[in-house]
């Protein structure tokens, strides 16, 4: 065990934590039996806010074992500390792929389940846990339950999306997608305004992967202009894993680097590039799904104070109105979002705290400041007024009331935690802030 400062990917907040790094299941059980104080499991630290922060944390990255792989059936069982990038490196050359991918490969399997991550194909395939058949969860007393939709189903649906608050996810068995190429056929469609962006997202919802980069810093007639990105798995070609060597941001950039002048200039160039590059072209899966992984420690671009990422989902009947209010709120604030993404979600699942539900989801980044925190509170109020909710894996500042409005099954979640002895044993800064 070592004591050190830890933070999420947004670098806010940061706390001093006693970090335990067990290498075996037995060591995890011994830790739970010897330490009675609340703790939380932690993987690669890619949740953005305080979901993996606690005075005591359990680093799971040493439990990174492949347990079983049926290359004929496309099923895989791994320990929770294996990253999605590591899984792809093994299964892609054998013609298999993870059915759901977030925006980075540097997420552990346990973290992907705990956050029930989603991808560019949620409108077709749902979220990560929908391809997970079984999870091994260590309870507070050190015992292990294998839970699924048929066995200890309440624990399964509380743990998938439960942000590590039901126990420690040790391993999981999941189903893979068959592919015949490691490449994606991508097509870009530049749009001049929000109406066109929304129309193209709807028009192309039959595509396997659909997402829009959005220039949220433009007002007036250009508000909501963007680039709609369509993707399909290539039907032929090599089956090659990612071999990129990432360049890293070597130090913290000065505060204000990603301010209005640079962000507006970058967005203008990016939009113009998208408008010129409309022909279909083929890209490696890593470049398509994980573009930011090519730049290591990219969170340093926001400086030492870090940044806030705000991601909400808005229900279909009010999404367009709410989206306009959110964009107007951002431009009126005078702050800029260097990165913004818009995409459609399909139906939600049976997990109690999973984020995705039918509608539109908008993601924005803001350099951390008092003004940015105040802006996020105003954005939260718009989301609540329209019946939406915020993504727990990105959250660093949501109020208890906002959480309970967006996640009405929170009381049932607490009942299940109590049933399995998790209350008071598994807790994070986020859970304490949200009243869990």
Distance between the termini: 26 Å
The largest beta-sheet arranges its strands as 16-12-14-13-19-20-18-21
* Helix percentage range: 25-40%
| Helix and strand composition category | alpha+beta
Basic shape: globular
Count of DSSP E strands? Answer: 21
Mean pLDDT: 94
Rg over CA atoms, rounded to whole Å, is: 21 Å
Discrete helix count: 13
The percent range for strand residues is 25-35%
The main sheet comes to: 8 strands, antiparallel
| Unreliably modeled segments | none
Write a short abstract of this structure.
With 436 residues, the chain is of the alpha+beta class.
Task: Walk me through the structure.
- This protein has 436 residues and is α+β, with helices and mostly antiparallel strands.
- Helices cover 28% and strands 25% of the residues.
- The chain has helices spanning 25-34, 84-91, 109-114, 122-125, 153-159, 194-203, 260-276, 285-289, 319-333, 370-385, 400-406, 410-419, 429-433, and strands spanning 2-7, 14-20, 40-42, 56-59, 66-70, 75-79, 96-97, 132-138, 144-147, 168-175, 177-178, 183-191, 209-214, 226-233, 247-248, 281-284, 295-296, 307-314, 340-345, 359-367, 389-390.
- Strands 16-12-14-13-19-20-18-21 form an eight-stranded antiparallel beta sheet.
- Helix 9 packs antiparallel against helix 10 (370-385).
- 50% of the residues are buried.
């Amino acid at each position: 065990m070592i004591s050190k400062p830890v933070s999420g990917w947004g670098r806010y907040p940061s706390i001093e934590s006693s970090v335990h790094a067990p290498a075996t299941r037995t060591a995890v059980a011994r830790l739970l039996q010897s330490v009675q104080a609340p703790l939380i499991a932690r993987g690669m630290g890619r949740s953005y806010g305080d979901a993996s922060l606690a005075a005591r944390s359990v680093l799971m990255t040493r439990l990174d074992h492949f347990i079983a792989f049926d290359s004929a059936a496309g099923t895989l069982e791994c320990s929770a500390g294996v990253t999605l990038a590591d899984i792809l490196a093994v299964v892609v050359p054998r013609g298999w792929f993870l059915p759901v991918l977030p925006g980075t490969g540097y997420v552990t399997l346990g973290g992907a389940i705990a956050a029930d991550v989603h991808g560019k194909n949620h409108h077709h395939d749902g979220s990560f846990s929908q391809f997970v058949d079984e999870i091994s969860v260590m309870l507070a007393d050190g015992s292990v339950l294998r839970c699924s939709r048929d066995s200890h189903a309440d624990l399964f649906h509380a743990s998938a999306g439960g942000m590590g608050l039901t126990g420690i996810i040790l391993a999981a068995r999941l189903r893979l997608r068959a592919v015949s190429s490691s490449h994606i056929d991508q097509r870009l469609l530049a749009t001049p305004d929000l109406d066109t962006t929304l129309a193209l997202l709807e028009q192309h919802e039959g595509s396997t992967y659909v997402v829009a980069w959005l220039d949220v810093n433009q007002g007036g007639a250009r508000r909501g202009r963007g680039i709609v990105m369509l993707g399909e798995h290539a039907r032929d070609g090599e089956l090659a894993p990612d071999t990129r060597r990432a360049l890293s941001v070597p130090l913290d950039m000065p505060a204000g680097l990603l301010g209005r002048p640079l962000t507006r200039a970058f967005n203008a160039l990016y939009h113009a590039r998208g408008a010129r590059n409309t022909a279909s072209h083929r890209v490696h899966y890593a470049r398509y799904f994980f573009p930011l992984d090519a730049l290591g420690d990219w969170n340093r671009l926001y400086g030492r104070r870090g940044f806030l990422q705000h991601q909400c989902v808005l229900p279909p009947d009010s999404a367009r109105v709410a989206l306009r209010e959110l964009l107007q709120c951002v431009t009126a604030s005078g702050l800029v979002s260097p990165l913004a993404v818009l995409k459609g979600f399909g139906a939600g699942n049976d997990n109690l705290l999973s984020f995705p539900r039918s509608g539109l989801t908008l993601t924005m980044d803001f350099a951390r400041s008092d003004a940015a925190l105040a802006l996020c509170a105003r954005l939260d109020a718009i989301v609540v007024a329209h019946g939406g909710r915020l993504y727990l894996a990105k959250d660093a500042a949501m109020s208890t009331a906002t959480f309970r409005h967006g996640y009405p099954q929170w009381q049932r979640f607490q009942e299940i935690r109590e049933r399995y002895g998790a209350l008071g044993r598994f807790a994070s800064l986020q859970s304490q802030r949200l009243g869990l």
